[in-house]
Amino acid sequence: MKIIANRPSAFWLSILVLVAVTGAQAGGLSTQLGEVVIENLQVGQTYNLKQLANLRLIVTNNGDDSVALKMDILLPDSSQLKGGAKPLPDTSWVRLSQNTFVLGPSEKASSDITLSIPDDNRFLGQKYQVAIWSHTVSYGNKGMLLGYGLESRVIFTTDTVRAPKGEIVKSSDASVDLALKPEAIFLDDVELGTTYDLEVGKGLALSITNRSDKAQTFRLQSLKVSNSATTLTEGYEDAPDASYLRFSENEIALPPHGTKEVRVFLDFPQRTEYCGKRFMFVVRAYSAGEKVSAGVYSRVYASIK
């Protein structure tokens, strides 16, 4: 329920799903959920992420053998915290609809994630992080020569004020069931004062896929890292101006399971202070026209000559 500046009666909630560049996978397991960031939740409320944005934790067994899987709620240590987040005060704030599974080859474990925030003003205006560790365990008479697992992170902020009861968003038709590819684009030897069409120069375009069963309209937005929910990659500076990265179109209507490619352009002006530097942009694709703004990130890295 993100508050729009100077519009105190407009409460919005924003959800982003971030997946590592290499994909969230370990051993024979993979998941679509590397990291979820939810902004402006209300204290004293319980949220089911499936109801909010059709978001569940799904883990796939990509191996050739059956495995037993367990999902554990864990608190991060200080080295794992991102973007000024604190460890969740208590793991009891997070519940899973199911946390143990036996999966055959290619089978999926699916669990709803529920967040409950105590009704206490101490928790207003906070940013919290918690982890869900999905890992193999031994079962039956089968031993386990090698255990493996993967981590999904849940990061959320709480609103600084309480929303009126009638404006608390608990469910939506928005869906994060969309894909934005590639998850990262690296551009080397970028010349200042030149307009780059990535499709012409690199054979690259952004591919947006609506993986849900209903037609949806999505928007594309270029962001500075400081204006996003992600963190800066080591070795790069934040983009000086998000408008240097633009798209052939910013609003895309897609049928169920439809895909469209969008051209990407990069324009760095001739400024000597940019020479020899490496910059990071964030591309956000998100659902349009919903009280819950659900979306995903991609990243563009530009190394200037």
Number of strands: 26
Average of the residue pLDDT scores: 87
Task: Please give the radius of gyration in angstroms.
Answer: 20 Å
CATH class call of the largest domain: Mainly Beta
Structural category is: mainly beta
Helix % is under 10%
Main sheet properties: 13 strands, mixed
- Proportion of residues in β-strands: over 45%
Q: How many helices in DSSP terms?
A: 2
CATH fold-level name of the largest domain: Immunoglobulin-like
Give an overview in words.
With 305 residues, the protein is mainly beta. It has 2 domains: 155 residues, Sandwich (Immunoglobulin-like), CATH 2.60.40; 127 residues, Immunoglobulin-like (Sandwich). Helices cover 3% and strands 46% of the residues. The protein has 2 helices and 26 strands. The strands form 5 sheets. Strands 1, 4, 7, 8, 10, 13, 14, 16, 19, 20, 22, 25 and 26 form a 13-stranded mixed beta sheet that branches. Strands 2-3-6-11 form a 4-stranded antiparallel beta sheet, with no helix packed on it. A 3-stranded antiparallel beta sheet has the order 5-12-9. The longest helix is centred in the N-terminal third of the chain and has 5 residues. 33% of the residues are buried.
List keywords for this structure.
305 residues, mainly beta, Immunoglobulin-like, 13-stranded mixed sheet, 3% helix, disordered N terminus
